[in-house]
Task: inverse folding
């Protein structure tokens, strides 16, 4: 095995907030093992804070839904072409792709042509929809670093090199202060119920879900007059976009920006959340929630034909059963959302049962050290691929 040359170049590409988070944690772990490496690529605030040179800001590219992606096609294509050019000219020692499958698999093809090794970290959900993509992955990717143990047999059967590294959220899912201290820090009354409003990390999610969330909060204020509401702004989102949906008619909402996600989660008695990585983060904290999901009708209609799993939320997918209630498309209405939150706040047995099921999700994700394991794997690949001239 050839030894890696000093100052290896590592290119990372993340297209969404969750990928930006996982990439940042990965880079921090790699820096501990390999402080002389250089990191650059596409990402957002968390990667930048971790010391990655951001060549393309991904915050404007994060959309959900097939039709929604098409409406941003020009921006996405321009970003892809720029990164393809960077691959051809800078030829990094390793390309690490984090989720964002359609975009990243195209970039992987360019890397293959350029002779750059590819590590795919956080697998595309090919086991959930369009499983035929696994053949394309096998042709373009040198190694899959998966975060769910059940993904390993799927790739092994297709002959794709794969390693289970553990989920990075297991390390991260802990608050920075006690619940009491967090309540004081956020200016919350510990004697009142706190309801979390988590509208997502993408602009498209905000525009589709915030109006419904605000109406739901109004209903809940009528049912729980002393309730207080908190809304964490996802990294990379404009706070003004969120506040634009709040007016004098809506309940007072504490809009929290730049705060520890788990500090906010732990002060909540129940949470309304958009589908996505947040459902897993909330489940790891054991906070009862309801998941909402809405895209354009055309995107939803297409997805119904392509998606093979029964659930939308990652918390339910990982659990392999319906742990948390999901409201999808036309069911995303103020009354059913408010009804579920009311039940979580008043039916102790129901809420406790959800918490018990959530504790099982934690066990499913494996031991701590996911980011460190992925970092070790990446450095192994650099030792194999670094130029020795």
Result:
């Amino acid at each position: 095995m050839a030894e890696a040359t000093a100052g290896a170049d590592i290119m990372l590409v993340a297209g969404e907030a969750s990928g930006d988070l996982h990439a940042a944690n990965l880079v921090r772990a790699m820096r501990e093992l390999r402080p002389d490496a250089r990191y650059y690529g596409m990402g957002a605030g968390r990667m930048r804070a971790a010391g990655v040179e951001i060549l393309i800001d991904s915050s404007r590219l994060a959309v959900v839904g097939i039709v929604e992606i098409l409406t941003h096609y020009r921006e996405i294509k321009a970003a892809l072409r720029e990164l393809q050019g960077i691959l051809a000219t800078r030829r990094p020692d390793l390309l690490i792709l984090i989720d964002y499958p359609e975009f990243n698999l195209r970039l992987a093809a360019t890397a293959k042509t350029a002779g750059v090794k590819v590590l795919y970290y956080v697998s595309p959900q090919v086991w959930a929809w369009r499983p035929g993509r696994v053949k394309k992955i096998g042709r373009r990717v040198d190694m899959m670093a998966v975060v769910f143990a059940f993904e390993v047999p799927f790739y092994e059967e297709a002959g794709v090199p794969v390693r289970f590294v553990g989920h990075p959220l297991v390390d991260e899912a802990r608050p920075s202060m006690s619940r009491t201290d967090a309540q004081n820090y956020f200016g919350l009354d510990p004697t009142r119920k706190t309801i979390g409003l988590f509208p997502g990390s993408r602009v498209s999610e905000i525009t589709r879900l915030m109006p419904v969330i605000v109406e739901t909060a109004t209903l809940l204020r009528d049912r729980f007059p002393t309730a207080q509401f908190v809304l964490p702004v996802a990294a990379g989102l404009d706070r003004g976009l969120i506040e634009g949906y709040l007016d004098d008619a809506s309940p007072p909402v504490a809009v929290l920006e730049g705060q520890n996600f788990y500090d906010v989660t732990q002060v909540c008695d129940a949470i309304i959340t958009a589908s996505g990585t947040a459902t897993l983060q909330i489940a790891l904290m054991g906070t009862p929630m309801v998941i909402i999901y809405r895209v354009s009708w055309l995107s939803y209609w297409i997805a119904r034909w392509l998606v093979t799993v029964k659930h939308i939320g990652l918390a339910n997918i990982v659990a392999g059963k319906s742990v948390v209630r999901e409201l999808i498309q036309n069911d995303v209405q103020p009354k059913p959302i408010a009804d579920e939150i009311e039940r979580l706040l008043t039916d102790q047995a129901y809420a406790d049962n959800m918490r018990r099921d959530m504790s099982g999700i934690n066990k499913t994700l494996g031991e701590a050290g996911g980011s460190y394991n992925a970092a070790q794997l990446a450095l192994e690949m650099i030792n194999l691929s670094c130029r020795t001239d």
Summary: Residues 9-168+369-385 form a domain with the Rossmann fold fold (CATH 3.40.50.2000). Residues 1-5, 63-68 have pLDDT under 50 and may be disordered. The chain has 18 helices and 13 strands.
